[in-house]
Every structure is written in structure tokens, then in C-alpha cells.
Amino acid sequence: MEETSATHDAALVQESRSTWFIPGAIIAAGILLAISIYIVRTTIVPTAPKGDISYLRPVSDTDHIIGNPSAPVVIIEYADMDSSYSKAFQQTMEQLMAEYAPAGKVAWVYRHFPLIDQYRNSELHAEAAECASSLGNPNTFWSFIDILQARAPGNQVYNPENYNSIVETLGIDTARFQSCLQANLYRERVSKDISNAIEIGAYSAPTTVVLIKGQKAVPISGALPYDAMKKIIQESITRAK
Fold first, then answer.
1. Residues ≥6 apart with Cβ < 8 Å to 142
2. Phi/psi class of residue 222: alpha, beta or left (left: φ > 0; alpha: ψ in -120 to 50)?
3. What pLDDT does residue 78 have?
4. pLDDT, tens digit, for every residue of 207-238?
5. Closest of 216, 241, 218 to residue 231, by C-alpha
6. In this predicted model, which residue has the larger pLDDT, 190 or 41?
């Protein structure tokens, strides 16, 4: 699943209870098989964004990273904090990183891609997370996102008027936080993430790029479920040189 401006219709394939002649049954079976293959493929196989992946910004020490930055597999995510799909993928990635990060084989990089045409406060959320991060410790950025999304789960959107309650929970001085936010200190940083996401062809959130050592980058659109993402990670670790 992914967050886009388009609305997709769901198709249901039902088995007919009619009695067919043998030739008709063979033809129908072929059609149903083709449809079932299409459904499986579109459900499991990720969709690559249409852009130039060569424009992907290299990972640096300014990025927000969980895991070893030199890991053979690095997952770069462009996300929107208010997007229900980004929220779901956030939980998936946190679960996977708890499994893979300790071994040093996988790293996760979070970058901002607020869909402001759908979530008017999402860009401000990104700036707020950066301000909180600058005033806290290395884990503050991730904690800010976790708390915001926990307080506005699913399709709910978070009200910026409640930022102070998050930073208080994180032990950050609210006056310093508000000063940072009102001065737009991290607007340029967030804008750079947005620009880079667009350059590589991102149009939805989350959009993810899997970097595999010695291999070409693999772009993915959509919030893949745990099992599908784990399969990609396992295969990527195997392919890494």
C-alpha cells in the first residue's frame, strides 16, 4: 500500500459456480490463472518509482540512521509522518531493525517526503522532528516520530499545537524548541530531502531505496508488509558482495 493522490479500485475475482463445457473450462481456467498471477504480482512485487535513481543523495553523517552506516544493505526511506502508510511502514521497519541491526548487516536511513497537498502540516512535522533532534540525543529524532504517530494513529493527523507535549515527554526545553521551529532553522534541510525524493521519481510516501553493496540500488514505492520487506532484506544480504 502507498499514499498517493489517485484512488485505486479493488478487483474481486470470484469462482463461477456454473457448469461449463470442457473447452470453455480450459479457457476460463487460463484467464483465472492469469488474473491470479497478476494479483499476486501486484500485491507482493514492489513498484519502482519512475525517476533517475542516480540522483540519490549519498548517505552521510547528517542523515538519521539506525544501524551500521557501512552495512552491506542500507534502506533509505522517504516518509510523511501523517501518512497512514508511512506509519505502518515505520512499525515494520522498527521491527525489522530490531532483528537485523545488531548484526551490523542492515541500516535504515530516514528522510523527509511530506505530501503537503494531502497533509498540510506534514512539512512542519518534519521541521519539528529536526528541531527536537538538535536539542536532544541521537535517539530523540526517532522518539519524536514514534510519539507523534502513537498519538495520531492510522488516518488521524497530528495537531502542531500539541508539539510541546511531545518535547516535554522527551525532556526538551519547550522555549528552545519553539524558538528553533519559529526560526525555520531546518526548513532548508527538509526541502533538500523533498527535492531529492522528487529527483529519484518519488510520488508517494513511503518511497524506499534499498542499497546493496556491489549491486544497483533497488527503488520501492509503497508500505510493504513485514513478510515482504523481510524477504527483500534477506535476498539483499545474500546478494551483497
1. 64, 66, 110
2. left
3. 99
4. 999 999 999 999 998 999 999 999 999 999 99
5. 218
6. 190
- Helix 122-135 with 187-199: angle, nearest 10 deg: 120
Largest CA distance in the chain: 77
Q: 154, 98, 94, 157: which is closest to 124 by C-alpha?
A: 157
Determine the 3-state secondary structure of 143 from DSSP: helix
Parallel/antiparallel/unpaired status of strands 64-66 and 73-79: unpaired
Q: Which three cell numbers stand for residue 211?
A: 542499497
What is the pLDDT confidence band of residue 26, given thresholds at 50, 70 and 90?
very low
* Alpha-carbon span 97 to 54, nearest angstrom: 26
**pLDDT score at 23:** 36
Angle between helices 84-100 and 140-151 (to 10 degrees): 140
Q: Which of 100, 75, 94 is nearest to 220 (CA)?
A: 75
* pLDDT per residue as tens digits for the range 125-144: 999 999 999 999 989 999 99
Quote the CA–CA distance of 72 and 141 in Å, as a whole number. 24
Strand order across the 218-221 sheet: 64-66, 106-112, 73-79, 207-212, 218-221
d(CA 12, CA 127): 42
Instruction: Specify the range with the lowest mean pLDDT, choosing from 30-34, 55-59, 64-68, 147-151.
Output: 30-34
- Cα separation, 154 vs 7, in Å, equals 18
